[in-house]
Predict the structure.
Amino acid sequence: MGDGTRAMKVQSDKYTEFVSRGLGKDLAKRLGLPQPAVLRRYEPGAPLVQGPVLVLGHSEGADAVAAVLLGWDQDVRRHATPKERLGAVVLVLDELAHPDQLSAPLREAGSSLRDLARNARVVSISRPALAEDSPEVAAARQGIDGIMRSLAKELRGGSTANGVLLANDIAADSPSAMSALRFFLSARSAFVDGQFLTAYATGEPVGQGTAESREAAEADWGQPLNGRVAVVTGAARGIGAAIARTLARDGAKVIAVDVPAAGDHLAQVANEVRGTALQLDVTATEAGGRILDHAAQRHGRLDIVVHNAGITRDKLLANMDSGRWDSVVAVNIASQLRMNQAFLASSHFASHPRIISVASTSGIAGNRGQTNYAASKAGVIGMVRATAPLLSGRGGTVNAVAPGFIETDMTAKIPFATREVARRLNSLQQGGKPEDVAEAVAYFAQAAAAGVTANILRVCGQNLVGQ
Amino acid sequence: MNATTTPASGVRKAVVVGGNRIPFARAGGAYAHSSNQDMLTAALDGLVARFGLQDETIGEVAAGAVLKHSRDFNLTREAVLGSALSATTPAYDLQQACATGMEAVIGLSNKIKLGQLDSAIAGGVDSASDAPIAVSEGLRAILLDLNRAKTTVDKVRILARIRPKDLSPDAPSTGEPRTGLSMGEHQALTTAQWKISRLAQDELALASHKNLAAAYDRHFFDDLITPYRGLSRDSNLRADSTMEKLSTLKPVFGRNLGEAATMTAGNSTPLTDGASTVLLASEDWAAAHELPMLANVVDGEAGAVDFVHGKDGLLMAPAFAVPRLLARNGLTLADIDYFEIHEAFAGTVLSTLAAWEDEDFGKTRLGLDGAFGSVDRDKLNVNGSSLAAGHPFAATGGRLVATLAKMLHERGHVDGRPARGLISVCAAGGQGVVALLEAR
């Protein structure tokens, strides 16, 4: 198909390649230089975890989670076996009552950390601390937050630490919580580190249950978006193109949207993912309606909306003009609000719909020269939280991913030294790939993530700034 | 008269699903280093992307180019093989000068109507930048002899026949082989014959630019064009053109006519590069693929004039073909809601309109009781035409059909019957191809 399959021109991280083997590895070690690992990324058919999974915790929930892992054909351990290379440690702490109860399970986990394989996973399953909890319970629950964010900074070799939070008293092995566990265990979450996903509702079981249904379930995990219709804005290049490819790989029919001026790249992406190209300015008042018309005409439905289109017009606030401010707000947040109104009013967007917005770490931690951009991206976060109740009625969810430093055409334009520093300022000591953001988006789109809503998931390798 | 225009026989309908073209570029500009195959492939890939036709086997793809390299003997098939369509899609080249794209649409539509095809893509491409340049006739004869020579002595003897004059290349021209006159010089004679004023020509050119610019501004072309090589609008478009600017241009054609010289670079189309495609289908195929149906291709008609010996101008064939087409369908000019009359030159359009309004022409040449009729100027080229967009010869037909089909679909019904549109394209050799479309 011509040069439709050509790879994106992304700056390769030569440093990571250099220090990952041979002389470079030795040199970096002696000089105490950062030694970023080559991260394992998702490939269909590859094992979920590379090695046995150690499940720690003594609650009923821990037993139930271990059973789910067995159902996923994982090699499950309930006690640490010294000198065995572990693929993952799952800490189930769903019945904490006092911070004193953290000591035993965490030290047990700690004694296993030296046995972790490269690209291993540590995942906690606990409950969020709430204002109505007793002070003791809240202290214990909030303690997990500090533990996992610290542990994420201690792990090396591409290993990550993340947590699942069980809201509304749902069981530890609820399908929604298990979808989040599976995402964190898998290579899909390669660049997600020190983060939490909150499951608010039980959700429908997927990939569990009887042995007869297990084969079908495995197929579901391989093609979790089969038969779903997705629209991706800003799909002509970079993160948007990666999202289109990832959703298509997971089985979705993709409608690729971008401004008419980007139409040639958009056509290449659409042809590559066997989808359709829709040239459209998302700031146009009829944008939502045109997307719905296209989806209804070609597929009879719309299931997944990915708001990825975004622009930057950086300037210090003191020098900001209305053109820069207004265009960023118009594209990055006002368009999403207007389109969501159209989608929510449509009968074609009614079957377990999913909205996933691309926010930014700038919207969380702020960034010099980006008051306009941060306003729009923080605005996205506010919008997501307030939209969640509007979608829950029809079994829908809305979430956001907040990318940190991602290697794209845009970040390739950053001067070399600045870029090199920006890359290393996270626990994984490297920039992420557009695919890493796309994997998180694709996760939120899964049927299995039905109870996972109103989340803002950072895909930043645990960047040093912000939460 | 029937409420809807259907062919007399019981054949099924051929519908226009949609189209795609790349922006047209003035020769030597953005596409200076793009070949016909590059541009046609890009136009096809954009069409495939718009309608999700990846790996689809289309019934037939027919397209062509007027300026064509001899190596491109299978241009359309090669473009299909390089596109995202299934490699099992058959394709063929055709050529009828500037009417190439129109003839592709009509021919494929007829096959669909007869049930020979369920789907088809009509197209056209031309590059005036990447035009073939041949060696001189003298050098060609020598090289062919050289190829046939067996001994070294013979080869040296043949090579010694080369003279400096043999080395000058032979570039293609827009001149008519039988008259030696360029198309512009021919039209200049016709323009003078019909006494078309400079002012009228400049007004038509200005309207073309204004209408095309307005169509872009209201995003009319968002689903008709896919950008190519950094261009997202036709590079010949001058949205800020004015009568003052147009009036300052000096005549470039018919300069020997003195005062009657009225044709400038502003009211003539420039040499242009570009490609266009149109997706055609049966109603069943379009419905099965959940694709839109914009318009029916109702009927088509070709015509030709004896411009060498007769009194008709080179580009006047449509003046005869349109009356025949409309009569066959029981229609008059008053029954048409949109006219797309290809602006080879402003003078071409205005001469054609003048002929239709001329009582003597109607009686003596068309065999009517009086003048054929008038075209309501508010219905003429309402989204601009070739004077603004440019005219990559074989690509113009596809541009016109896709544009008109979308306009008709948006218009819907007029007085309780589907909106009707007429396309008229003149071509070298004194030819013309016209077609009738109807909204769905």
Summary: Chain B has a mean pLDDT of 94.
